[in-house]
Specification:
By secondary structure, the chain is of the alpha+beta class. The chain has 2 helices and 4 strands. Helices cover about 30% and strands about 25% of the residues. A hairpin with a 2-residue loop joins strand 2 and strand 3.
């Protein structure tokens, strides 16, 4: 099965400074964290939760594409997406 993203929810991870979201491969949940550096230059150390979530929403399609590529290369259930995953 292909990785799909039926649930649009996402959450800010203050400790890891990123945004968490999930995809699904059949009935299996696959968790992702998008690191601060992958969310773009608008995000800084002092950015608010709203800024992180807004940056994620603005780049959702490219984030999901990067997540799908990462999952195809290494099946697993927990991934961290870094800036280099978007090139």
């Amino acid at each position: 099965m292909a990785l799909i993203f039926p649930n649009r929810s996402r959450s800010f991870d203050q400790v890891r400074k990123g945004v968490r979201f999930s995809g699904y491969d059949g009935m299996f949940e696959v968790r992702f964290l998008v690191e601060e550096g992958a969310l773009g230059s608008a995000i800084t150390q002092s950015s608010s939760e709203a800024a992180y979530l807004s940056a994620f929403d603005a780049a959702r399609s490219s984030i999901q594409e990067a997540a799908s590529r990462a999952y195809r290369h290494r099946r697993g259930n927990n991934f961290t997406l870094k800036a280099e995953d978007f090139h």
